[in-house]
Amino acid sequence: MTRSTYKAVEVSAPGSLRVVERPISDPGPGQVRIRVEACGICHTDAATVTGTYPGLKLPRVPGHEVVGRIDALGSGVSRWKVGQRVGVGLIGGEDGVCEPCRRGDLVNCQNPVTLGVTVDGGYAEVMIAEARGIAAIPDELTPAEAAPLLCAGITTYNALRNAGLRGGDLVAVQGIGGLGHLGVQFARRMGFHTVAIGRGREKEKLAKDLGAHVYVDAAAGDAAAELQRMGGARAILATGTSGEAMGPLVAGLAARGKFMVVGVPQDQIQLSAFPLVFGGRSIYGSLTGTPIDGEDTLAFSVLENIRPMIETFPLEQAPDAYARMMQGKARFRMVLVTKN
Ligand SMILES: NC(=O)c1ccc[n+]([C@@H]2O[C@H](COP(=O)([O-])OP(=O)(O)OC[C@H]3O[C@@H](n4cnc5c(N)ncnc54)[C@H](OP(=O)(O)O)[C@@H]3O)[C@@H](O)[C@H]2O)c1
Ligand SMILES: [Zn+2]
Ligand SMILES: [Zn+2]
Fold first, then answer.
1. Which of 80, 113, 131, 196 has the highest local Cβ count within 10 Å?
2. 237: CA distance to ligand 1 center in Å?
3. Which residues have a beta carbon within 5 Å of ligand 2, which is an ion?
């Protein structure tokens, strides 16, 4: 491509996504320039679009499920090659100097490069990324298939694999959306007795096709009681966007069970102390993962034939695709594709 500009979709003011043309710039030291091929639309993008993400400055290009090819290297980049297929997730680089970084806990860096928040993300034909923040994409995956694995995938995969679970454990995934539909697949392929918790019966068949052994309709009754009838869950992966729906589910855990919060609802999560104290249950959050966790997620997905269920839209139609995700209509991930 010889054009000196590229198309991007930016949030210029809260609530407004618009297509703009920007000049292409060269990558700085330690950076790479990526020709974007696909970018998933994550619910977290809403915090950019509405202007509420802490530290956000507008205008900003959202998008942190980015896959493309490197077309230029900044100085000092030796690990990556021009033409190589790579991806970037939400955390596009750590500062390396804060306390969590110094303890090796890179994902909890206190001053991270955050795509779509501190730097422009992947709703664009071109993106500049920190070389330390990118992951290699295996050949088996198309760009549109790989993209959702870099946030929805890594987040659910990491939470499940780091929970100290054992084969056959009863594991529930609450919320069958972008994250949840991958969480169900990972839980099943990791060897857990997998329960999908949704609202209504509409997603029951899809959830079972994705690998759920059991589907629980939280709208029809007490989902926690249903889990207790099955013996109690060793872990619940809560991916929904409602705090009100999360709190009561803690009572569905077995003794010592873990409630893993990955959804980030706007409302508070109300908790009863009883199931926490009597049975030693715990609740904690989990934030996405590092680039190498991303590569693990992609490798596991290839190994176990896990793919996101996607709907693709051309980049220019990002506002429509975003609206469809916000309305809960995506089955299950909207992915923007470019002509690159
Ligand atoms: N921890 C992390 O690192 C991380 C990474 C990515 C995203 N997130 C967060 O995870 C959440 C989900 O993201 P997503 O991209 O999967 O969103 P999404 O595709 O829009 O799915 C939203 C999910 O929320 C559920 N939901 C909505 N309203 C609900 C209600 N009133 N009661 C119960 N469930 C409700 C839906 O469940 P049904 O199946 O019942 O319709 C659906 O599964 C967002 O808050 C996002 O910001 C966190
Ligand atoms: Zn995300
Ligand atoms: Zn740090």
1. 196
2. 11
3. 42, 44, 151
